[in-house]
Every structure is written in structure tokens, then in C-alpha cells.
Please model this.
Amino acid sequence: MDDPTPEAATVTVRILDQSYLVRSSLDRAELQRLADYVQGKMRTITTQTPHGDLVRVAVLAALNIADDYFRCREHRTDRDRVIRERTAEIEAVVDRAIRVSLPPSDDSANA
Model:
């Protein structure tokens, strides 16, 4: 039987001139994309706080990334709510159209 999870591989990524060995089941390009995102956040923070130590920069980057994540999650929740509402509206329109287009049933004719 095939294992649905890909094989984990060790990949080297560089963030702020430091090399890190990362073991992940993500493909190399996806992992590099994530590392580039973290690198970008950390570079932005180092330009804003040039005398911050690496731990401080990493914590601030983590907070920024967490903020990005929660904003995306809220946006997705709002989008899902709108989709559910629109789906219910469409279902109601379809139900009305079906009721209007169907001939009356025999039960209603005998009433």
C-alpha cells in the first residue's frame, strides 16, 4: 500500500546569512519559498531595528508571521460565510423556480 505522506528529506536553507538544515516532507522549492518568506520578514525587521539581536529579530518576525496568518484565517472565515450565504440564496431561488415550473400535484387538484 502506498504511503500518502511524502518521504522527508533534509534541505539546507539560508536565513540572515545563517544556514539551517531542515528535515521536511515538503518539496525543496516549497521549503525554499517558506524560508524566503521568513528571510523577507527578518530582513524588514533588521532594517527597522538595526541593533536588534538575532533572537529579538526572530521573535518579531514570528509575531509578524502570526499576524499574517490570523489575518488570512479571518479573511477565509469571512469569505466562507459569504459563500454559505450566497449558496443558500441560490438554493432558495432554484427551489422557487422548481415550485413555479412544476404542475400542481394530484393532491392539490382534489382539495
The mean pLDDT is 89. Residues 9-102 form one domain.
